[in-house]
Amino acid sequence: MSENMTEDSRVLDARYHMPAFGRTMKIVRGAGSRVWDDQGREYIDCVAGIAVCSTGHCHPAVVAAICDQAGRLIHCSNLYYVPNQAELAERLVGLTGLGKAFFSNSGAEANEGAIKLARVRTGRKKFVAFTHGFHGRTCGSLAVTHKPAIREPFEPLSPACTFVEYGDLDGLAEVVDTDTAGIFVEPVQGEAGVMIPPAGFFRGIRDICDDTGALMIVDEVQTGMGRTGKWLATQYTGVTPDIVTLAKGLASGFPIGALIAREGLEFTRSEHGSTFAGGPLACAAALATIDVIEEVLPTIPVKGERFLKGLARHNPRGCGLMIGMSVGDRCPEVQQACARDGVLVNCAADGNLRLIPPLVITDEEIDTAVDVVNAALG
User: How many whole angstroms separate alpha carbon 37 and alpha carbon 201?
Assistant: First the structure.
């Protein structure tokens, strides 16, 4: 079928695909920070597959790594040593300063793994997480995700989780005890609309964990892999977590997730597993992605400041290339206006406009995107 047969695609989608997503556009090609739809229209992509396409679309180094590995071995399962897997684990341990890695196929799966690891190593069952936090849509990861609209249809959920206001250390101290297996937290709440915690918040969580024996589990699925200007956003805080989860930007769009835990905290044989996780192609893509991010990492804080300065009249929040603005009920209208003028942006929760472009976005593209967003906001 031709890429231009949009109507046929929509008919097929309506007939055969479960209507879980609301979508109006068909993207058929990407290069760098730009994408094209099936009508030939070009856009600066400030969504990046929801913070996934960290090195941009179809970065030549990532494409070459995938194609090269695909010509040698696509899959062998974790019954055997997997090409590129140990090398990627070594890189991630080095970048995070933690002990060992375990791979998954997504961020939700990485958080499921963190739940299992916390429960099996502490012998405890309960968790604490924060209001407006998002950790995934599988039943386990949804249990530690706050948003009522996506939780309530699937309750009762397990594990048991208590929610505390994001940033409230006093409230956290009241509910964490010696029955708490772990505390789930995002360094910046992405799905909530780029919400940044108060100073000292992460140090306070670390202290509470140390006092009670609960594990500090930091969800860096959206903030990790250079998104904020460091490999982990946690590295701005001076705090070392017990477990970190990664996904989204780890392999430039090839599905992969990972949990990395401190030394001495690990799964033993048969406690966890996955057929596809950490496969040869995914790990090859991730290794190539890390090499590209290393090159651009020093530029990310500067690019983020360029966005914030350009959007200053709208009181933006940001950390590196995560930018959010509260626009209320107008958010869908603003999103559509930006798309009409050639810039893709995203409405996160509670009327917050979110920009999470590829890390390779150029200054010229930033300036164009800023002009379009300012015009859409009025």
Answer: 42
Q: How many CB atoms lie within 10 A of CB 12?
A: 12
Pairing state between β 180-185 and 126-130? parallel
- Type and span of the H or E element at 171: helix 169-175
pLDDT tens sequence across 11-47: 999 999 999 998 889 999 999 999 999 999 999 999 9
Q: Please give the Cα distance from 282 to 202 (Å, whole number).
A: 31
Could you give the CA distance from residue 31 to residue 45 in angstroms, rounded to a whole number? Answer: 10
Q: Using the predicted structure, report yes or no on whether residue 2 has a pLDDT greater than 70.
A: no
Chain centroid to CA 314: how far? Answer: 25
pLDDT-derived band at 229, boundaries 50, 70, 90: very high
Q: Which of 287, 312, 303 is nearest to 46 (CA)?
A: 303
pTM: 0.96
> For 89-141, what is each residue's pLDDT tens digit?
999 999 999 999 999 999 999 999 999 999 999 999 999 999 999 999 999 99
Specify the 3-state DSSP secondary structure of 150: helix
Question: What percentage of residues in the chain have a pLDDT greater than 70?
Answer: 98
Q: Residue 3: is its pLDDT beyond 50?
A: no
Question: Which tokens belong to 100?
Answer: 């060992």
**Closest of 51, 19, 37, 144 to residue 357, by C-alpha:** 51
Question: What DSSP element (H or E) covers 180?
Answer: strand 180-185
DSSP helix/strand/coil, 261: strand
Polymer length in residues for the chain: 378
Residue 318 gets which letter from DSSP? E
Encoded amino acid at 221, one letter = V
- CATH assignment of 63-295, among 2.60.40.10, 3.40.640.10, 1.10.10.10, 3.40.50.2000: 3.40.640.10
Query: Nearest CA to 205 among 195, 217, 196, 193?
Result: 217
Cis peptide before 198 (omega within 30 of 0): no
Query: What is the token pair recorded at 327?
Result: 């626009």
Domain chopping of the chain, boundaries: 63-295
The tokens of 121 are what? 């190593």
